[in-house]
Design a protein that fits this description.
Blueprint lengths: L11 H4 L22 H7 L12
C-alpha cells in the first residue's frame, strides 16, 4: 500500500487492516470519463503510472 505523504510506504500492521480485495475501486478515474484538473494532468503526464500496469 502506498501513501501520498512521506514515508510512501504503509507499515504492514496498518496495511493488513484494509484487505485489497475488500477495498473499493477508485471512483474518479480518467479511463472512466472523469475530467481531471489541468494541473493534475500536467503533473501526471511524465509519470503515467497507470500505463505500467496490465489491468489499468
Amino acid at each position: 500500500m502506498v501513501t501520498r505523504y512521506f514515508p510512501h510506504e504503509v507499515p504492514q500492521k496498518y496495511s493488513n487492516l484494509y484487505p485489497l480485495n475488500q477495498s473499493p475501486q477508485a471512483k474518479l478515474h480518467p479511463d472512466d470519463g472523469c475530467v481531471r484538473d489541468r494541473w493534475v494532468e500536467n503533473q501526471n503526464a511524465p509519470l503515467n503510472y497507470a500505463a505500467q500496469f496490465e489491468d489499468a
